[in-house]
Amino acid sequence: MIPEIGNLALVLCLILSLVQIVVPIAGAQRGNAAWMAMARPTARAQFFLVALAFACLVFSMLTSDFSVKYVAMTSSRLLPIQYKVAAVWGGHEGSILLWLLMLTFWMTAVSVFSKALPEAMVARVLGVMGFVSLGFLLFILLTSNPFERLIPAALDGQDLNPLLQDPGMVAHPPMLYMGYVGFSVAFAFAIAALIGGDLDAAWARWSRPWTTVAWTFLTIGICLGSAWAYYTLGWGGWWFWDPVENASFMPWLMGTALMHSLAVTEKRGGFKVWTVLLAIFAFSLSLLGTFLVRSGVLTSVHAFASDPRRGVFILIFLVVVIGGSLGLFAWRAPKVGLGGKFKLVSRESMLLGNNVLFAAAAGSVLLGTLYPLFLDALGLGKISVGPPYFDTVFVPLMAPALFLMGVGPITRWKEASLPELRVRLQWAAGVSVLAGLAITAIKGNFSVFVAFGLALAAWIVITAGVNLWGRVRPVPGNTVSLTKRLGSQSRSYYGMLFAHLGVAAFVIGITMVKGYEVERDVQMDLGDTVAIGPYTFRFNGVTEGMGPNYRYQRGSVDVLSNGQVTRTMSPEKRTYLVQKNPMTNAAIDTGLVRDLYVSLGESVGPTSWTVRVYYKPFIDWIWMGCLMMAFGGVLAISDSRYRIEQRKAARSVLVSDASLVGAVGGGAVK
Amino acid sequence: MKPRSKRLFWIVGGIAGLALVVGLVLNAFRSNLVFFFTPSQIADKEAPVGRAFRVGGMVVNGSLQRHGTDVHFVVTDTVKTVPVRYTGILPDLFKEGKGVVAEGQLDAAGEFHASQVLAKHDENYMPPEAAEALKKGRAVNDRLSKSLVTDNGGRAQ
What we know:
The structure holds 2 protein chains of 2 kinds.
Chain A lengths: L1 H29 L2 H4 L2 H24 L6 H6 L6 H7 L4 H21 L6 H25 L23 H30 L4 H32 L10 H26 L3 H23 L8 H4 L1 H29 L10 H31 L5 E3 L1 H21 L10 H26 L4 H25 L9 H7 L2 H26 L1 E7 L4 E4 L2 E12 L3 E12 L2 E6 L2 E5 L5 E4 L1 E3 L4 E10 L5 E9 L2 H18 L2 H16 L1 H13 L1
Antiparallel strand pairs in A: 2-11, 3-4, 4-5, 5-6, 5-7, 7-8, 9-10, 10-11
Chain B lengths: L2 H30 E5 L1 H5 L9 E7 L5 E3 L2 E7 L4 E7 L11 E8 L5 E7 L9 H29 L1
Parallel strand pairs in B: 1-2, 5-7
Antiparallel strand pairs in B: 2-4, 2-6, 3-4, 4-5, 6-7
């Protein structure tokens, strides 16, 4: 009964999405205020219906209703309750439903926080989002229905993949999807602007916070995924350039470019066409990412052959969305105009450089991810593109971007003077290079890679300091105190600084791990020791026991420094009862400047095991850097200028409804 | 600079930059492609010596030998076999009689030195390369057994 209610809710939602596409957009074209006003209620009703469907699936999961095929495939009786909830998005069908839930959530958010926007714009934005929602509803109802029944019902489910039974994995997909789907707002704004034909600084100001929110969620999502891989997969890596990871990284790169391009559009009215294009690409890559990961095409392109409906639907949908929006772009973009002029040395050109580098990076990831799939689909043989390709491409693409990151924020808009920049930055450059060399020298083993990476990180930190000091330094005749001047800088400015410092932390993390990590795979018997730097690891054997839905073998490894046991680490090997898959749970001792990482390999004798003993300097800085970037995003969104706009809008709504209708008419005529 | 020559400068600079990036990416791409070969192709000397590639198939039952973290095993596509050597800890799902993919280089003696051994998340799931190798291998076996039948038939007549 409950699953049928969920199904019914989705069907009703499908009808609503059709209404939401047709009526408001037609209203906006014809200047009909009543039709345009349909956008908000339909968006909210869609959210309600999808939330209802989602709740039905959660209910079926929690009650272990194995007559629902999806529940039988992703859950089991013994699965702990928090993972039963996580199992809702643990498989293909449920995760697409989660995607849809997020989409309707974003639609509702737009309908609430858009009082300052012209009604015609709101109508078009929600209409475009309604179209995306229609696509996903059709996809769910036609090819991936999570409410499909299994007759006869299974006695027990096949359980959630043990790799996903982890707190990090509970949060990772929702965060990632919030990011993916968040770009649909920027996309809808771009398409709405193309349809409406007016794209100005106000447009950029509206779509900017949405993009930043989406980017923040995506950053956190990727960060969680990377941290999860580090402690769950049991071999100490944090990024593998796996297609699944690339699928989330491409929209991130494009979204980063979009965020910076929007800054130019808002402040200077420039890059309009380019911004619109980036918005289209960022969302297209989000769609591609969702489908790449969830359609099974990565496991085998021949999965499409076993269920061609899914593959064909996805291809058609991608063609309609990407082809349609690019077609609209080609048709309407000439009307948008290029925006303000700028000189070769200016903040605009630095940001353009950033944009091109990020777009090129996204393109190179796309090539490395899709090319093997194409070859395989065409029957031209199997190849793989591994980490060496991405490493070779990324260092030369990102190094100039990191350099620009130091210069750009200090450079003036429109036209800057090169000699002035040189004066302001020569010290920073010198100190950065010295810092890079000095730290590698202290470490003992010199490496060009490490010196270069650390110099770039130092460059970002020092130029951020120069930037801030330039804004707040005491000027003769100005008596405002330093703290006051610090306080008067905008939150979005601090957000930018903080995010850039996050990048510096990230670069330090990567550089130190790549440069100085120690990985030992050793065979250890009772009492055997292995030494890495100042740490000695002693193996004390393995004990066995039972967890809630798995059996475990738990090792005990003492860490000694100066002959004293400072801590005991307990890596585990788990065998889950239903799926029988062995799982390695590493024991990690986290520290600010180093992680100690121990995981069990296999039993090779009565009491002896192979053991991974790793020393990972500064690895947590990688994720700390990501979180700092995300926090920078949060700061930028909380900037007062966005809130003032909301308040102003709220007041104008209160003043009179008649004036609103007048404004609506005006907006639609434009 | 005149506006027109400046625009030209921008365009030429942009194209040069783009060409540089594309060249860099494609070059890195070409030199880092990892091709895949089946044990039969290796036996036929189709695989390169001294360049990394992937081999896939099934781990032969009883072929696994360990000396500490040095591991030897044999991979087959049911027609031909290739000996593999690896130093390190094998993935959780590595098992005799199951699918496996190894990446590494072939030495002059015909032994494969794996730098990485892959066995994927799910034990019911066969790595695509391994599945491909076994499929091809079986096709060869089928053809062989058929031609044997026809040979026998010929002799009987």
